[in-house]
Write a structure and sequence with these properties.
By secondary structure, the chain is mainly α. It has nine helices and no strands. The longest helix has 28 residues. It starts with a helix and ends with a helix. Keywords: Cell membrane, Endoplasmic reticulum, Membrane, Transmembrane, Transmembrane helix.
């Protein structure tokens, strides 16, 4: 029963990444190499973030919300944006369209994040004798992170690769990218500052990911229209 629960949670956590790759044109255009490169960039970015967090953050004696510490975490979190910029603009990709490129990068980015942050806790905890909903919620959180990562990659593609975008949309693109990039700090405030429980935070992440995906899709579609 414990292994059955583990496999269910693992499929919920990592399965949507494989489904997204196989159900979209990404598999037809063989963009797996791009996703793997993006995943490696994510791992390098995560290492840089870990060094910065260990260097600049002090160990908190309480589990409360510290505005200064969280602001510093948010600033360090923008290293992810720098890593995503490198993955989108500096890596060599196959001859694929901009539309497929940002999806492949976002997919690889989200998969690496799930492996790095959720695989070990899932392997240790989901095989326990006592059933808990926490790992199912972690799987749902991984799905929300997948949507947010692809949305951020789409917004990054518009910021750095799309040259002829309407000027009226530029502030909206940057604002949305800022919101997605600071989601870890937002959820940390909800947990520590407002005392939200894990299911409430996951519900917020799922709702926000769907909203940001819709907005990113609308912005991407609007920027693809020829200017008059």
């Amino acid at each position: 029963m414990t292994m059955f629960h583990f496999f269910n949670c693992a499929i919920l956590t990592f399965g949507p990444h494989a489904v997204y790759y196989s159900a979209t044109p990404l598999s037809e255009y063989d963009t797996l190499g791009t996703s793997v490169k993006a995943a490696l960039v994510y791992l390098g970015t995560a290492l840089v973030k870990l060094v910065c967090l260990a260097t600049f953050l002090k160990v908190s004696e309480s589990d409360g919300f510290d505005p200064y510490q969280e602001l510093l975490k948010a600033l360090i979190g923008f290293i992810d944006v720098a890593g995503l910029y490198f993955a989108l603009t500096q890596l060599t990709h196959r001859n694929i369209s901009q539309n497929h490129k940002f999806q492949a990068v976002g997919l690889g980015w989200a998969f690496a994040d799930s492996v790095l942050h959720r695989l070990a806790p899932l392997w240790v905890g989901a095989r326990g004798l006592e059933f808990t909903w926490d790992y199912i919620l972690q799987g749902l959180e991984a799905n929300a992170n997948l949507v947010l990562s692809i949305s951020l990659a789409a917004l990054g593609s518009l910021m750095w690769l799309r040259k002829n975008k309407p000027k009226t949309l530029i502030p909206i693109i940057y604002a949305c990218a800022g919101i997605v990039a600071t989601m870890p700090s937002i959820t940390s405030y909800l947990r520590r500052g407002l005392g939200w429980h894990f299911p409430e935070v996951v519900g917020f992440e799922i709702f926000t990911s769907l909203v940001m995906a819709f907005i990113s899709w609308q912005l991407f579609s609007a920027c693809q229209k020829p200017s008059i």
